[in-house]
């Protein structure tokens, strides 16, 4: 039996540049350096979950999610939010995206969270279809002008999955 060439590994300070390159190559939104640095900032109270996806030795995808602070003042977070999920076009269809999503689902359960949220630009039909196939549903009307520094549509759907 041949060994599965797809693997996941942590995002470290020494490979976060690769993660940033993948995210900013794949997504129409440009994420600034501080977005990538904040997960290593000890003063940051947010909890981030991130992984790089590898095909063989090459990093070709990545995901980062965050526990959502409870705005009602409760201690329990209000769910998990997928901030970015991206796989380089040449490496899609090999279940790398599915593996990255499974990692977020596992982390959500470990943190006793049962709701995962994502935003997807209204013009990203493939992304919307992919999330729906993976159990997400559109919640409410699109958010107007959600994305700022983007070459795509600034409007986003909120997607949610119960886990
Ligand atoms: C959405 C995205 C992350 C999915 O990544 P991916 O690695 O291609 O995802 P998967 O391989 O898990 O699933 C994609 C498809 O391949 C199929 N697939 C899964 N494993 C497969 C395999 N071993 N061989 C062939 N096909 C496979 C899946 O069933 C799925 O089928 P579909 O084409 O009918 O949808 C990727 O397309 C992407 O980066 N898109 C641009 C950015 C984006 O839209 N991000 C989400 C919004 S932020």
UniProtKB/TrEMBL annotation:
For this protein, the record's PROSITE patterns field holds: GNAT
Q: Which Gene3D superfamilies match?
A: 3.40.630.30
Keyword terms: Acyltransferase, Transferase
Q: Which residues form the N-acetyltransferase domain?
A: 1-163
Question: One Pfam family this chain carries?
Answer: Acetyltransf_1
> Domain of life here?
Eukaryota
Keyword Transferase: yes or no? yes
* Gene Ontology molecular function, alphabetical: protein-N-terminal amino-acid acetyltransferase activity
List the protein's name. LALA0S01e04258g1_1
Query: What organism does this protein naturally occur in?
Result: Lachancea lanzarotensis
């Amino acid at each position: 039996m041949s060994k599965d060439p797809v693997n996941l590994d942590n995002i470290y300070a020494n490979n976060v540049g690769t993660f940033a390159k993948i995210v900013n190559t794949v997504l129409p939104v440009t994420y600034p350096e501080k977005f990538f640095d904040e997960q290593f900032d000890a003063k940051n109270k947010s909890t981030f979950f991130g992984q790089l996806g590898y095909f063989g030795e090459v990093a070709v995808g990545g995901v980062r999610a965050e526990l959502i602070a409870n705005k009602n003042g409760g201690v329990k977070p209000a769910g998990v939010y997928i901030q970015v999920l991206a796989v380089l076009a040449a490496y899609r269809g090999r279940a790398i995206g599915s593996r990255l999503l499974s990692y977020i689902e596992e982390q959500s359960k470990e943190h006793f969270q049962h709701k995962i949220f994502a935003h997807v630009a209204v013009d990203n039909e493939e992304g919307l279809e992919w999330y729906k196939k993976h159990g997400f549903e559109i919640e409410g009307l699109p958010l107007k002008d959600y994305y700022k520094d983007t070459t795509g549509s600034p409007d986003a759907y909120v997607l949610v999955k119960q886990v």
